[in-house]
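F.,

This is the one I mentioned.
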């Protein structure tokens, strides 16, 4: 399932940066980042899920925020009235700073929300909703708790990401190189040499409850006090992760 690497750096001009790999069914239609929600105006953009109408990742300006949702694996009983989409969560968090609280009507999730003050991680496990602030440093988020080394890809790659310098700002345009993102992107390129069904893989394919999920896109996000930068790269159809990044 989805993977996010995030660096919280309070003393930097861009205090939060993160890299997100979106895992989804190849049959589920989606649109690249844009202002797909007229009621939220042009200030909110995101990766649009055509099926349910929400966003996997959303960003907003004025004030600057970014939020991304990851699925968990618990299976609580459906609420009265049925499930609502998890894709509404990043939109609410980015647009209004609204964090989940109390019982939820969505399936279980982890939610990362970032602004110039840092980053918080919200969890709905089907029993309770809890939000904690991430400590300064580099973290790796999956379907489990932050930095949970019982997840094989966390055990393998978290130390590697912590051993290199994190990005200090937005990913430049392709014509300008990779800037401070090169160490993280080098690790992503290295990891993509693994088979997609390897438990250590970051760019992966998973069979979950009979449904196949693939890593379909890559997002790099940087948040400052007065701006948010989101660069998005489609991985589906690309001959390799390296070529997809180079073509961005």
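My design for it:
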């Amino acid at each position: 399932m989805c993977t996010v690497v995030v660096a919280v750096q309070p003393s930097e001009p861009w205090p939060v940066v993160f890299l997100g790999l979106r895992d989804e069914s190849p049959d589920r239609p989606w649109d690249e980042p844009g202002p797909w929600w007229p009621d939220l105006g042009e200030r909110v953009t995101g990766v649009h899920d055509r099926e349910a109408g929400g966003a996997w990742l959303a960003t907003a300006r004025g004030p600057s925020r970014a939020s991304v949702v990851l699925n968990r694996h618990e299976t609580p009983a459906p609420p009265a009235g049925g499930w609502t989409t998890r894709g509404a969560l990043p939109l609410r968090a980015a647009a209004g700073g609204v964090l989940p609280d109390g019982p939820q009507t969505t399936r279980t999730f982890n939610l990362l929300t970032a602004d110039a003050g840092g980053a918080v991680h919200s969890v709905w496990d089907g029993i309770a909703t809890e939000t904690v602030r991430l400590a300064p440093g580099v973290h790796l988020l999956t379907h489990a708790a932050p930095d949970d080394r019982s997840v094989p890809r966390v055990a393998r790659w978290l130390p590697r990401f912590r051993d290199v310098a994190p990005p200090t700002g937005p990913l430049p345009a392709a014509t300008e190189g990779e800037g401070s993102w090169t160490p993280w992107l080098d690790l992503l390129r290295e990891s993509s040499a693994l088979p997609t069904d390897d438990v250590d893989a970051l760019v992966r394919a998973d069979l979950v409850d009979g449904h196949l999920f693939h890593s379909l896109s890559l997002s790099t996000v940087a948040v400052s006090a007065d701006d948010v930068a989101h660069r998005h790269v489609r991985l589906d159809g690309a001959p390799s992760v390296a070529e997809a990044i180079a073509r961005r």
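The longest strand covers residues 211-223.

Talk soon.
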